[in-house]
Design brief:
eight-stranded antiparallel beta sheet; 2 domains; Lipocalin; alpha+beta
Length: 229
């Protein structure tokens, strides 16, 4: 009788792990078939019994990211980052994996994504395209891109006579003051200066996913707002 009780106890302890493995396997099969609702169902099933399961947290984040790339943001971008953080906490190797995972491609240029991956704040600045507002069907009307060599390019869309859409580009330099603040200076010409006026440095406040640039009437963010265009 004692041997039977011991055997039953061992089987009971083995069941949750076996159940999680089966749910994860079914989730991956559904993900490969692009049956995203089923994949979500199976990964969530695992997390009900094993909330820290790295595999389920990571792949559920990937599933949500794929839906986000299709402009189906039913679960929220913040939820993706929470899942990735849980996955990394349980299995640190996922921190490097997420940087090359195609399922997470849509998030690659987001501040929070790079932060979760452990990228330094000053480096994140150069990995993100910083977009101005998107007032209509043309998408963001201007944007900044920063390079690690201390230079930047500012581009903006303009309308020529007759209504044709054109694009102007301006180059410049930037220099850090603190992790949350730096300065930019345009080269020969600037969209903010009149002809012949000497270029000046402009202070930039750098917070999570947002740039506030002196003399600009709007802020810049890490999102192009492409799904609402």
């Amino acid at each position: 009788m004692t041997r039977i009780i011991i055997l039953f106890t061992l089987i009971s302890f083995a069941l949750p792990a076996q159940t999680s493995t089966n749910s994860n396997k079914k989730g991956i099969e559904a993900l490969y078939k692009k049956d995203y609702p089923k994949a979500i169902e199976y990964f969530q099933e695992t997390l009900k019994s094993s909330p820290t399961d790295a595999f389920a947290n990571y792949n559920l984040a990937c599933t949500y990211s794929i839906l986000l790339s299709q402009c189906e943001d039913a679960y929220g971008e913040d939820e993706i980052y929470k899942l990735l953080q849980k996955a990394i906490k349980s299995k640190p190797a996922y921190k490097s994996k997420l940087l090359s995972d195609q399922d997470l491609e849509i998030l690659r240029g987001r501040y929070r994504f790079n932060e979760v991956a452990g990228i330094a704040k000053k480096v994140i600045l150069t990995k993100v395209i910083w977009y101005g507002p998107s007032p209509g069907a043309y998408g963001p009307m201007d944007q900044f891109t920063f390079s690690e060599d201390g230079t930047f390019v500012y581009t903006r869309k303009t309308f020529e006579d007759g209504g044709a859409l054109a694009q102007e580009s301006y180059n410049g330099y930037y220099s850090w003051e603190t992790d949350s603040q730096f300065q930019i200076r345009f080269k020969e010409k600037s969209p903010l200066s009149e002809a012949g006026q000497r270029q000046k440095s402009r202070r930039v406040k750098y917070s999570e996913g947002t740039l506030e640039i002196q003399d600009f009437e709007h802020t810049f963010s890490d999102s192009s707002d492409r799904c609402s265009a």
